[in-house]
Sequence to fold (531 residues):
Amino acid sequence: MRITGTGHASMRIDTPAGSILCDPWVNPAYFASWFPFPDNSLLDWEGLGQVDYLYVSHLHRDHFDAKHLTRFISKRATVLLPEYPTSELEDELRELGFASFIRTKTNEVVSLDGGLNVMIQALTSPTDGPIGDSSLWVEHDGVRVLNQNDARPTDLTTFTELGHVHAHMLQFSGAIWYPMVYELPQAAKTAFGKQKRERQYDRTWRYIDDLKADHVFPIAGPPCFLDDDLWQFNDIPGGAGTSSSGGDEGNIFPDQQDFINEYAKVGGSNGVILLPGSVTELTAEGGCHTTHPVPDVTEFFADKLAHLEEMRERKRPVIELEKASWRHPEIDVLKEMKRRIEPLLEESIYLAKGVGGPVRFDLVGYDAESVESIVVDFPGKEVRRYADEKVRYRFRTQRALIEHLLYIDEVDWVNSLFLSCRFSAARIGQYNEFVYAFFKCLSEERLQYAEGWYDEHQRSSDTEDVRLGDWNVQRRCPHLKADLTRFGVIEGNVLTCQLHGWKFDLSSGRCLTSVGHEIRAARAGETAAGD
Ligand code: FES
Fold:
C-alpha cells in the first residue's frame, strides 16, 4: 500500500484495488486565515485528483475545499460517505458534481472491488466538527491503516478488533482559537497555551498507545497563518518562549517536527512525517519506506521561517482578493441578525438554557474606530442593541466579517468566524460549550438536531461507577462519555479527562472547565458528590 502526503489531513492511498483521496485542502479557509502547512498548492493536483474514491471526513473548511474539489478532483470518483445525521455533506458534494456515493454505516466494514476494505466511524455529537467528524480505516492485502484524522473517538477498540494496524495517522496540533484570541495578559495566555499544548500531546499519546500501530503519522495540522494580522499565531522555532523541543511552549500549533521531538521524549521512535509529496510504502510485515521531496526533513523544519515568509509573499494577493469580498455595507446587521437568529432562539431549549445569559458582539466599523454593540439575549430570546449589562461572552470583530456571514447565509459561525481567529473574546466565568454549539447551528435542521442530541444525552443516565485511585467515580465522562478508566487522570482532588482536557473537582462534583456537567464522585467509602 502506498500513501502519498498531500498536506494537512490530506493523503492519497494507492492500492492495486483502487485509490482513495482523503480531505484535499489547498485554498485558504476561515476568512483566509488558515493555509496548509507545509504548502501543498504546487503539487501535481491534476494527477492526484484522478482517483477511484474520495473521502471527505467532514465539512470543516480545512477538510472540505469546494473550490479545489470542483477544479481538480475527478467527478468519476466514488464518494465514501460517513453516516451523518444530516445530509449536508452529500448535498454539498452533489452540488460540486459528484454523483456516485457509497453511504457507509458507522463501524461497518464495506468490501469494495478487488479486496479493498474500508470502514468509516462517524462521530455525531454537536461538538464533533460541524455536526460530525469521522475516521477512515482501510485494509488491503493484509495492510491496515487508520486515518483517525482530527476525530476524537472515546476509544479505538472498534479498530483494534479488526486486527493489527500498520499505520496510524492522527492529529496532534491545535485547531482552535483558545487561548490566543482571549483578552488576557500575555503571561496568562502563555500559561494557558502551554497547558493546551501539553493536553493535546497527552491525548495523542493516549490514542497512539491504544492502537499500538507499527508507524505513527502526525497529520491534520498545524495550519499556518499568512496574513500579517495573524502571523504571530505561527509556532516558529527559535522565537520567544522556545521550548526544549524547539517550538514556542505557549503556542498551540506545534509542527510535525515538534511532534517527533516530543514523541521521542515519551519513548516514541516510530513517528513518520509526511510532507506534501512524501511517499510511504507499507507492507504487511511492518515495512515502511518513505521518500521525501526535500533532502533533509529536519532541516526543512529548522528553516520553517523562510518557508513561511516565501509563502506569505506568494499568497498575499489571494488574501487581499478575499478581504475585498467581505464588505457589504448595504446590510443592516442588527436587523438581519434579528431575522436570522430570533426564530432559532425561540425554538432553543437546551442550548439557550445552557448559555444562560446574553452574548455581546462588538462590531468594529470600516473606519476601525466606530463600534456597534449587539446582544444575542438567550434568556430574553431576542437580538437587540447592547444595554450596558453584564454578558456571558463578548466577541469583538470587524463588522465586515459579520456582514459577510449574513450575506452568504452562513449557518455555522464556528466553521467561519471563530476558526478564523479574526476576533478577540472575553467571558465571565467558565468556558461555555453551548455558546459555540448554538453558533454552529444557525439553521432549523442543525438546531433541531443539536437540541435533540442534548435532550437524549441528558436523559441517558450513566449508572456505572469505577474506582480511580482513592475515588469512586462515574465511569463515563460527563462531557462526551469518554471511558474514564482510560482517559481519567487524578491529581489531588482534580480529575482530568484527557480526551478534551476537561477538569472536575471530585470533592464537589463540579466541572472546572465548563458550566454544568457535574460528575458523580466520592472518596472510597463515602457518599457520592453530584448524586
Ligand atoms: S469526553 Fe470530553 S473531556 Fe471527557
